[in-house]
Amino acid sequence: MWSQLRTRLDELATGLKQKNRTNLEKYIDSPHSEKINIGKVVFEVNIGAEPHGDNELAVFVDGWRHRFLGWSQSAAVGFLIDEEGRVLEMEKEVYWEHGY
């Protein structure tokens, strides 16, 4: 189930990497959220972006499984895009800086 979620997140991130930075900046003010089913489990998938450093945009695709008593589990995929539109892989520390 988690590997299927990770595959779906990777697919979404791959599609987002094809977009230009201007299109991705819309996710700063208007994150996207949708529910997907994997088997009998419902996950909430979110796409968001945040400025990173002086010239980069951090783009995140995350999936959450809400469980009983407020517990939840998550997975996230992200990348950076610079002001020239180059896509850069995201280091683990960048995830931490943005609360993942």
Give descriptors for this structure.
100 residues; alpha+beta; five-stranded antiparallel β-sheet; 3 helices; globular
Describe the model.
It is a single chain. This protein is an alpha+beta fold. It has one domain (2-97). Helix content is 31%, strand content 43%. The protein has three helices and five strands, in the order H-H-E-E-E-E-E-H. The chain has helices spanning 2-17, 21-29, 92-97, and strands at residues 32-38, 41-52, 56-66, 72-81, 87-89. Strands 1-2-3-4-5 form a five-stranded antiparallel β-sheet. A hairpin with a 5-residue loop joins strand 3 (56-66) and strand 4 (72-81). The longest helix is centred in the N-terminal third of the chain and has 16 residues, at 2-17. The chain is globular, with a radius of gyration of 14 Å. The two termini are 20 Å apart. The model has no long low-confidence stretch (mean pLDDT 90).
Layout of helices and strands:
Elements: H1 2-17, H2 21-29, E1 32-38, E2 41-52, E3 56-66, E4 72-81, E5 87-89, H3 92-97
Antiparallel strand pairs: 1-2, 2-3, 3-4, 4-5
Q: Briefly, what is this?
A:
The chain has about 100 residues and is α+β, with helices and mostly antiparallel strands. The protein is about 30% helix and about 45% strand. The chain has a five-stranded antiparallel beta sheet.
Shape: globular
How many alpha or pi helices?
3
SS elements, strand count: 5
Biggest β-sheet: strands ordered side by side in the sheet: 1-2-3-4-5
Radius of gyration: 14 Å
Low-confidence stretches: none
Largest sheet: number of strands, sense, barrel closure: 5 strands, antiparallel
Terminal CA distance: 20 Å
**Total count of domains:** 1
